[in-house]
């Protein structure tokens, strides 16, 4: 009898505990209890406080404040708190949560509990004294990493251009990606992994005592995708672009100042470097100033994660020192179209992977004909409603030009340093210049054409990524 009663009592106690647990979880009681426990725990410990003000002593934005703000507002405890502010993000349609003044937000790190409070445009961090020595440094590092991640994920890219010695910025919306540019697949993958390797090699570079920067030279005829490729790199890495227009820069000081004002994780771009170098009316940048700029020595004084990209139509006549290994790490050649790249363009622009006219196009390419991807792309774009018409217009343009194209004309022009011909017309460039090409030019072009058609694979000759 006693044993039965004992079992009954135990059963009742278990049921009661279960009901209390259910009650606590179904109502806010468990939450209230937990809060009380935390408060008591906080009361019996001595805390140390660290204030992160929004502005620094000279009235400028405190970078750490921005990072803390991003970090704290991303904490799950903000979402779970009794009240919080909701804002729509300035840069996207997302809704963001933001801490209210005097609201306490708790966070845990390496087993220690810390508190954040926002007071008078400052964030105050409270850490138990006993934990401070152990966690403060790694915790701040952790905030740094997480906020950088958040920034990178939601980053709106910017294009900065220099005018009158100052940077002006606009949103960078170029839609170019590695998928939209027709480049030999192997080369594309090599470049992607080269970029990724670079981004992950901070320690390695610093161990070698080298500035953490990598420089690329993109060279080749006009309209072969160099500028689009730069945009693709920016989109791939989520880097801002600083486009240095050297003709707008007065002297070395101005060049250095502009370089110092660039932020890390950015692309430093100088387009048409060959034109600038050959220009008689060069600005006051000295040769040594230009070399130092290319070496990125000043980059190391601020934050050194930079990628420098230079473009040229031709390397001919450029001083070897300017392109020497170490100064330019990777040389990438952008060739005119061959049949393979034509097929890539047809697939991108027309959605056509196979077509009965392809054979004819291939024969024309085998005969040495070529045009720039820009010209072929333009013909496809204006005729995109009818792939057959688009392909016929490409065939006509290739044949009509006797295997030539504006790009070749520009190649020849750049070799002779004479002014470039007018750009492609709206109805799809290829044929537009046909009647205007002088005979001697066609002869010269014939030579270029022969040379180019000797290449087994357009991107495989010196084109391929040459690392120096
Ligand atoms: N390889 C390519 N794949 C896809 N599209 C291309 C390619 N090359 C050029 N195009 C298209 O042609 C147009 C011009 O290309 P882009 O401005 O990148 O050429 P570029 O090499 O920088 O010329 P330039 O030397 O005259 O500055 C762009 O609209 C681009 O989309
Ligand atoms: Mg360009």
From TrEMBL:
GO terms for biological process: response to stress. Keywords: Hydrolase, Magnesium, Membrane, Transmembrane, Transmembrane helix. It comes from the Eukaryota. Its cofactor is Mg(2+). GO terms for molecular function: ATP binding; ATP hydrolysis activity. Residues 212-338 form the AAA+ ATPase domain. Residues 413-434 are annotated as: Disordered. It holds the Pfam family AAA_assoc. SMART domains: AAA. It catalyses: ATP + H2O = ADP + phosphate + H(+). The keyword rRNA processing does not apply. The chain crosses the membrane at residues 6-24. InterPro entries: AAA+_ATPase, AAA_N_dom, At3g28540-like_C, ATPase_AAA_core, Mitochondrial_chaperone_BCS1, P-loop_NTPase. Belongs to the AAA ATPase family. BCS1 subfamily. This is AAA+ ATPase domain-containing protein.
């Amino acid at each position: 009898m006693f044993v039965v009663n004992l079992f009954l009592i135990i059963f009742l106690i278990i049921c009661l505990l279960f009901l209390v647990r259910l009650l606590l979880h179904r109502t806010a009681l468990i939450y209230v209890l937990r809060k009380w426990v935390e408060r008591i725990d906080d009361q019996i410990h001595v805390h140390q406080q660290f204030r992160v003000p929004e502005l620094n002593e000279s009235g400028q934005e405190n970078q750490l404040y921005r990072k803390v703000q991003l970090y704290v507002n991303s904490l799950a405890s903000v979402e779970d708190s009794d009240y919080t502010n909701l804002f729509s993000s300035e840069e996207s349609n997302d809704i963001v949560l933001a801490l209210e003044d005097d609201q306490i937000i708790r966070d845990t790190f390496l087993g220690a509990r810390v508190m954040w409070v926002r007071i008078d445009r400052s964030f105050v961090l409270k850490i138990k004294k006993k934990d401070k020595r152990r966690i403060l440094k790694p915790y701040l590092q952790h905030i740094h990493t997480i906020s950088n991640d958040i920034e990178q994920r939601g980053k709106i890219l910017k294009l900065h251009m220099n005018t009158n010695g100052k940077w002006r910025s606009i949103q960078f919306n170029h839609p170019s990606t590695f998928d939209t540019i027709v480049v030999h697949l192997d080369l594309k993958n090599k470049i992607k992994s080269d970029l990724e390797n670079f981004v992950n090699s901070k320690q390695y570079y610093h161990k070698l005592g080298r500035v953490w920067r990598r420089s690329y030279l993109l060279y080749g005829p006009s309209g072969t995708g160099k500028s689009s490729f730069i945009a693709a790199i920016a989109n791939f890495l989520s880097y801002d672009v600083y486009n240095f227009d050297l003709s707008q820069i007065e002297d070395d000081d101005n060049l250095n100042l502009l370089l110092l004002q660039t932020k890390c994780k950015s692309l430093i771009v100088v387009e048409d470097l060959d034109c600038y170098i050959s220009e008689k009316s060069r600005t006051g940048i000295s040769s040594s100033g230009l070399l130092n700029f290319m070496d990125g020595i000043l980059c190391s004084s601020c934050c050194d994660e930079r990628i420098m990209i230079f473009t040229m139509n031709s390397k001919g006549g450029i001083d070897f020192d300017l392109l020497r290994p170490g100064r330019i790490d990777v040389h990438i050649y952008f060739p005119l179209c061959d049949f393979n790249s034509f097929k890539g363009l047809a697939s991108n622009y027309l959605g056509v992977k196979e077509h009965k006219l392809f054979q004819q196009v291939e024969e024309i390419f085998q005969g040495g004909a070529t045009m720039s991807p820009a010209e072929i792309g333009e013909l496809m774009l204006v005729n995109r409603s009818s792939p057959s018409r688009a392909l016929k217009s490409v065939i006509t343009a290739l044949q009509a030009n006797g295997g030539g194209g504006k790009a070749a004309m520009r190649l020849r022009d750049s070799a002779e340093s004479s002014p470039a011909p007018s750009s492609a017309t709206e109805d799809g460039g290829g044929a537009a210049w046909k009647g205007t090409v002088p005979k001697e030019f066609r002869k010269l072009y014939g030579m270029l054409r022969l040379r180019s058609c000797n290449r087994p694979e357009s991107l495989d000759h010196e084109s391929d990524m040459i690392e120096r």
